[in-house]
TrEMBL record:
Signal peptide: none annotated. PANTHER family: PHOSPHOENOLPYRUVATE SYNTHASE (PTHR43030). InterPro entries: PEP-util_enz_mobile_dom, PEP_synth, Phosphohistidine_dom_sf. It comes from Candidatus Magasanikbacteria bacterium RIFCSPLOWO2_01_FULL_40_15. Gene3D superfamilies: Phosphohistidine domain (3.50.30.10). GO terms for molecular function: ATP binding; pyruvate, water dikinase activity. SUPFAM superfamilies: Phosphohistidine domain. Residues 296-366 form the PEP-utilising enzyme mobile domain. This is PEP-utilising enzyme mobile domain-containing protein. Belongs to the PEP-utilizing enzyme family.
Amino acid sequence: MDITKLYQTQVSLTEWLEKIGHPDTAAMRIEDNNKRERLKIIKQIIDLPFDEPTQFSAREVADQSPGFQEFLKMRGHELCALRLIPLKSDLPKLRMRGQSVRDVLVWFAEQKIDPNNYKADFVPHTDENKWSTIFVVNENGIFGEIIRGGHHQLTQGFYTDHQPVAFSFDWNEWHCDTDDSDNREALEHLRAITDYLKVTEKAKQKLLDEKLNAEFAHDYLLGYFETVTTDEFGIWFIDYNRILGKMYDDFSVAQSTQTTTKIISQQTISGQIGNPGIVRGKVRIVELENIATTDFKENEILVCDMTTPEYISLMQKSAGVITNRGGILSHAAIVCRELKKPCLVGTKNATAILKTGDEIELDANKNIIKNS
């Protein structure tokens, strides 16, 4: 999979939410645009490692200021993620990942932005991610997914060699459903990551509260988090989102990722619950290239390989969503939750077993698909 091309076509969660008219879109945009400023504050207080960017104004980049020229000379060969962050709330954030600092300047010029309205974050990047995680810390515990390789596999829902693995920590015991060897390594990694979020000193908790309105449970910082780990850089936190943390304050993997054992035409479909609920309806299988020409009816059940932003209008019409790929905290699963659509993800074979026109019941409370 060409990651550079993927990032040219995929959009941020904020843009997903904007497309469905979510009431928190504006607040989410501000939260997302400022995430590295929050991570910087957390690092200063509890030494949290994060993908700290080299920052310039977009005007400095456009004009090739002396400071930027020095940066280009010293680090122009390094891979980066360039994020153009708007200084005005009504402008979009623009991003490109996986090119060298020097090469990404071609993409920068193609954006035709007013450089007075943006700042440019050059974020260190590597294609050799060892682990990636996405998780929520709430009053119930720590819940999320871990995968070997690139982080886009979790947020965008696209993966090839490895499937996301759900994990949970209920303040007493860790659970991670992998084979024995992977289980030990994954759990060691998860403990190392989440140890950074345990703040036992009350003075530091108070300072984080004063600066970020931070909240804690069992001394762990609450919120939504994303991390990547590489041999080159070690563990990096790449997101801390308080709004998503609030949206998922009742989230629990233990209740939402049971494995299916249900049969359609004598074949098994298994997956994970992206959002609970029970619906009945006719299946409509829709390939990405056929979205524009598909006559999708209200309250049909959308079945596809993986939802992308192009599917949003169909997701809004649908009674529920079933996908071959994707995870419980992928952008698509979050959008289904906000649309209140029952959603089953990561089935591997739904498009092969189900047929357009099949009448089924999707019980995303118990993770059951059956003929209705």
